[in-house]
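Fold it.
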Amino acid sequence: MTDAREAALETASEQTPAPVPLLDPREGIPPVVASPEALAEVIAAFSAGTGPVAVDAERASGYRYGQRAYLVQLRRDGSGTALVDPIACPDLSGLGAAFADAEWVLHAATQDLPCLGELGMRPAGLFDTELAGRLAGFARVGLGAMVENVLGYSLEKGHSAVDWSTRPLPEPWLRYAALDVELLVDLRDALEEELDRQGKLEWALQEFSAIAAAPPPGPRVDPWRRTSGMHKVRRRRQLAVVRELWTARDQVARERDISPGRVLTDAAIVAAALAPPATTHALVALPGFGNRGSRRQLDVWMAAIDRARALPENRLPQPTAPMTGPPPPRAWADKDPVAAARLSAARVAVTSLAEELRLPQENLITPDTVRRVCWEPPRTLSLERVGEALAAHGARPWQMELVAPVLLAALTDTDTS
């Protein structure tokens, strides 16, 4: 290595200090709250605390059915850190009421809010540190990366994908869980300052308000269509096999409280759809059906395939889900060339604006909103009408103010009326 290269590396090292490992919570690992008496103490402590409340939840995705919380972590000034077992204490509405007027600080709020809502905990207002990082232009917005880049500490992230339904929870996991909320409020404060410096704080506050006010997500339409590998399945009878197997698997997974993928893989479902077996013996020979777990349910899988095989033509699923909006963009050139030109111009304009503002394009405005406005633009092209069209599809005021002018220009340039 040359002397000049060594000097450059030394200079870079001096400019970017190595992150400080954060190994233990300030007050140590708190005991897990798993009784009404312990929960009452935590409620009293958090009611007496001040300022925002750091909130996190751990699920057992990939191990258990659904997205329920198996540990809830909280931290507040004057209250310390609490680790609550929601299996032992399934009603946390009293805890939520203890800081009902406080701002919640979460990382990737939309991931945790549904399972917290199931426990009776709903925020009046929140600050999402992941979304704040996106709006501030950070390239990496995971909690570990944000804490490292903004605060200069490194978090141990080795337990993010463990089975949080395990009881008792091992001490290293509890340490990891407590550290996840240790610096969350500090991160919030630093990001608020950075957003204010960039002139983006009001944008963030509008986004946070929208998240807090959003209703719980409803059930998906035709969730079986999200089976991995579905693009290989073309025929309607084959689609029926996917649907019946997916539904049977979901019922077994729900009854056994096991992640559906551990009951039967998506790849196995697609394999059975592409070559539906006539017998159980032939089913076992297919990939994914010969293992011990799948063999225990062979009669269930075979019955599902037989149901799909027996369906009359008029009850077979359609190749695509019912359309509720514009067609896929790849079809626009044939269906409506003018709309295709509008969309192309709008995409270029929105992408350019997002780059100028140092924002991910999807945070500036959702691609679906752009598609819908381009497919059915306002009859009268004006700044006001384009803004109203954006608002009708859920755009916030800050998005309307920024996007409406560039979208209007794109629509006007391609208007042939």
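The mean pLDDT is 93.
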